[in-house]
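Before relying on records like the one below, remember that each one covers exactly one chain. Contacts with other chains, cofactors or solvent are not represented anywhere in the record.
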Amino acid sequence: MSEYDKYYEDFGIEDEFDELTFYCVLPVIEQVTAVFLKLIGLSAIVTILAQLKSDRLNSLIDILLGLLCAFLFYGSSMKYIVAVVSLSYMVVWVTCGTGKCGAAVLLSNLIFVFSCELAVVSAEQWHQIRGTVILLLMKTVSLGFDVDAGVITPPPPPLFFGYTLSPVSLIFGPFVTLADYRQSKHTPFTRDVFFRICNSFLLAYLCVIFSTCILNYALDSAEKTTMFGVYFTAQSFRASHYFVCYTSQITALIGGFQHSSDEPYSVVAPSKVEFPRSMAAVARNWNLPMHYWLKTYIYKKSRSLGVFASAFLTYAASSILHVSHESQQPLYSHTSIHGLNFQLPVVLFSIFLFSYVEMMLRSELAEMFNSCVLVHRCSDCSHRNKVLELPTKLVFVAVNVVQLAYLGVMFDSDPTQMEGYSRWNVIRKWSNLKWYGHVLCLLGMGLTLLLRVVNKYWGKKNQ
């Protein structure tokens, strides 16, 4: 008997299932549990001490526990987190009352982020902390715009630093507003919330095991250029993202965050991403708090520039946020992104292009057939043709599933991804797939133009 056989016999590993269990599933569970113990423990302490009913004391506790959380996860790199929060507070203090507080905070934070990314911080350190820095950017920018709008008054230092550094949302998120933070201190912990936390725990474990072990095993057995291989690659990335979102959902629920008194806090809607009604639904349900931030503080603030320009700026901001947020996964490396990378902005711009073309195409189809096939559901539907609704929607769901596989192939386990794909890597990967996603988009554009001409001709004829 060979040494290899003896090794596996000693551990009782006789088949691939046992190997997968002992060398992937169990180690991943151990790593995830170690992270959960730190995050959940600190979040639980915050919630328990919130019963003291002293806002100033609660803020000081959040600051101290937030600094401890940053130290546990980032060590000495936490100084950059303290720096960006301090910088933001100084900008808020100087610019409050000018009506330019939000823009000033956004500009100063972007300068800080790109300076750290390109010059100040080492690549290894920045890779660790940039997700948290971006979350802090989102919090402080929202606060600045809310101050400009008169929704809130400039907060005192304890409240500002308690809000930004709270361990409940410091590492994995989610984004919360200052109003959400204040409300969380007075939210009761109910049995329904407890069951929702348990459910989120289970889903988080299932997603990380599915992504790291099961799908990677399937990818080892499948040719990556086939449709199955492409789909599994994209699915692995999405499952790892769901894990991060469910982790942030756990801490948010423990911390008392809720949409309303009847609706527990949700960070992601996987079913609406896996079987999307439209590409716009993917962008919306990928990360619900981030979508709210982009819609409220980027899209609506830039609507004066026009729908197309404001949508483009929103996707540009989304690319900056996601480059950092999707890298915030310290448990395993196959989805980590290091440095300024090329593939994620290109993918997000492609989603913007695909979404825009789909919206225009479905608008023309709805007009031609008088059928409710628009990207968004009609609030007061007056379309008469109901026969084509379901088949048309199913076709678009199928097309969007295929497009997600095409876009997700960029986020595989290639070691090159750790340094960010160059444009040549992106071109090579999509060339292997014959650029079918962008070909479908071009066909959609052509069909949209054709339908527009036909609709105009019929409209004039009917007049």
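The chain has 18 helices and no strands.
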